[in-house]
Here is the input.
Amino acid sequence: MSNVKAELKEGVMTVSVSGNVDSSNAPDIEKEIRDALEGQQFNELMLDAEDLNYISSAGLRIILRLKKDYSEFKVTNVRSEVYEILEMTGFTEMMTVEKAYRRFSVDGCEAIGQGANGTVYRYDADTIVKVYNKYSSLDDIKREREMARKALILGIPTAIPYDVVKVGENFGSVFELLNADSFAKLLINGTYTMDEIVDMDVELIKKIHATEVKEGEMPSMKAVAVDWVDFLKDHLPEDEWKKLNKMMNDIPETHHMLHGDFHLKNVMMQNGEVLLIDMDTLCEGHPIFELAAVFNAYIGFNSADHSTAKAFLGLEWEDSVLFFNKFMHKYLEGRSEEEIQEIIKKASIVGFTRILRRTIRRYGYEEGKPLINKARECLDKNIPEVDSLYF
Here is the structure.
């Protein structure tokens, strides 16, 4: 049985080598590899070592010759034992060598959180795993790890992922969160009252918003929001779009931290300590963008189908609306009721701007019609009633 298999896909030639490669079979394996490559046109050569158990110096010389002949060359899915050999012999410094990822299964695991880019599962008493959507890449995972690290350094209580794994065809980040429960679970179970959860929620988000970051250190939420409006130019009445465009561009640029996806399932409690998770949406900007994201989580995304509040947050629609209003009154404590309602209106405009753009792009007018109608209803009514989107 051959130790070598080759596959050409989208300009990448992948050669898989299995078993042991040593002096007894290295010449034959190299010939198989060369025969598979002969006459093929490709941009990159990838040696897949997922099933490679051992490699001797004779096998290492094959890799060296391949690297010499093909400038775009890397070794992937390398088991720990083989990686140690490549690292010890200096191969990891000469070329790209990627370790294999442990495989996890979340079948039967409780989904304890959900964000824009993935779902968080309780894997066991000590561990949670965030499984990223298929369109999320390893770059997203690396970015989230870096954002979480920066937030922790700046004093934001968060969990840092310590491993990357494969979950089916998707990637996942592994966190150690011993006996941690989400705010959603603590509220639903009656461990804390809604007012107590709101108090802790607002205390955390105000700590985040009070944290300044260096310019350019985190993505600008305003730049993202301006792109939403640009997309909608052909989907809104001209006068309405012009006013929305001006108001969005007029929101002041600030360098205060925002979470970007702040809701009950992205805040955990571990041994009495409140921790923030799902840090891939971390950014900087004016707090109206955060309040818009909070509005969307509790009201906006659930406005066309109230049952989605239960599916997403575990709350009945009425409780979801109640939580949002309590959150806003606590966050804006000291302002008049008129001011609070005005800011809620502004948050709804920013929130539904995002929803309208997202729904049109992802589902189109036919499938997304109920939510598109809700978004248009809000924007048509509220844009004429405000002169700015900040406070």
Q: What stands out?
A: The two ends are 71 Å apart (CA to CA). Residues 89 and 287 are 51 Å apart (CA to CA).
